[in-house]
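Q: My labmate handed me this sequence with no annotations at all. I'd like to see what the chain might look like in three dimensions before we decide whether it's worth expressing. Could you predict it?
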Amino acid sequence: MTRTEMDHDVRAVADAVLYEGYLLYPYQAGSAKNQSRWQFGVLGPPGAAGDGVGEEPSMSAQCLLGELERSGAEVTATVRFLHHQSRTVERLGAGGAWIPVDRLAVDGHEAISWDEATESEIVLGPWGLDELEAGVEESFCAAGVVDGETLADSRGRVVGRVVRTRLPVTGCLELNASAGDRRRVISVSIMNDTSVDMRDKGTATAQSMLGTHVILTCAGSKFVSLFDEPDHSEPLRQNRCYPVLAGTEDPTHPGTSPTVLVSPIILYDFPEIAPQSEGSLFDSTEIDEILTLRILAMTEEEKARARATDSKAADIIDRCESLTADDLAGLHGVLRDSNAGSDLIPEVPDGVDWWTPEADTSVQPRTDAVLINGVRVCGGSTVRLHPSRRADAQDLFFDGRIAHVATIHEDVDGDIHVGVTLLDDPAADLHNWYGRYLYFAPDEIEPVPRDGAS
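A: Here is what I predict for the chain of 454 residues:
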C-alpha cells in the first residue's frame, strides 16, 4: 500500500495523530511551551526510560479479525512516525569557519535554529494468515541524514547556512495471528531498537519515534469493533495504544472495517476530522475558532518570528490570514434547530389538551419522559444499562447494572441524554442531592419493571 492508496479519511485522522503536539501556540521558537513540546506515541531508544531521559521503547495492541470472506486473505502494516530533525543555523565567520548561532537575519528575513521533524512511513507486508499464525518479524530503518542549505544576501554573498541533521532510527514490527475459523486475534507490537550511547535527553529525543502509530489493512476479511465484542473469551491486551476501526463505515456491515488504526490517542471507531476544521493547529483538543482569532491577533513582528520558526507554522498563519468572513463564521460550528425531531414527551397538566400551547411546558428534566421500546421512561423509572461501542472505558463497567432514572435532557443537537444513578451505589442519595449523574442515550438503556429490579 503506497501513500496514494491509503484511504483519504484514514490518512487525515492518522496525520492528526502524527502531528498532535508538534507545535503549540503561539508557534514561536522563544515560546516556553514550544521549547518543552510533547507528543503522544513516543518510542524512545532502549534504556532511555530507565535513565530518565526518554520514554519506553515499545507499544503493542490486539485486535479482532472476523470470518474470512475469501481464501488467501492478507494483512498489510503501515508504520508511521515523525523523525526528529535538528535545524542548526551557522554564520560564516572569518577564514571560512562556520559558527553556530541561534538566529541569523539575512536581508530582513530571519533563519532560526530549531528542532523540527520529517514524516517516516514504512509499508510492511502483505502477509498471508498462515504466515501470521507462525509469526512475522520485520525490521525497518529511518536513515540518518545531514543536509546543508546556504544563505545568501541580495548581492549573492554567502553569509550563512542551515544544516539539517537526522540521526538514524531503527525499529522492529512483530505481527501474529491466532488460529481459528470465526475470529482471529491479531497481535501487533512495534519497538524502537536503535543502538545508542545514552548521554542526555537531547540524544534520546533525536533517536525516538514520535507520534508512532500503525495502520493495519486486511484484504479478504474485516476487523471487528472491540466495542462490540465485550464477551471475548480472553481479554485483549493493549499497551500504550488502542486499535479502532478506521475509514468509512459500511452501513451494510456495521461494526466492521478492513482497516484498523492502532493509535496512541484514545479514539472511537471511525474517527473523522470535523468538516468545519480548515487544517490542523497541532493543539490537543483544539478549538479552531479561538486559536484562529488568537493567531490573527498576533503582531506582524510575532507572525514573522513564527513563520521563521517552522514551515508548518508559516502555513498555519497563511491559512488563517486567507480565511474569509464566511470561513470564520463556519468555525462556530453548525446551528441546528434544537426542537427538530424531539423525542421528549412533555408532562401535560391535568385538564389541559395536549395540542394547546399550555401543554408545551418548559423544560423539566425531572418530569420529562422519553419512549424506549414503547415504554415511557422518566424520573423514577428503573432501567438496565447497556453502554454501546461509543461509550468510554468507564461506562463499559456499568454494562448490565440496574439504575434509577433521575433526569431526561435534550441537547441543542436534539440528542436525548438520560441521567441515572446506580441502584447499588451507596452514594446514590448524595449524587441525587447535588445532581451528579451518569448519562446514557436512550438506545443504551432497557426499561425494567419495578418488581424485576432485583
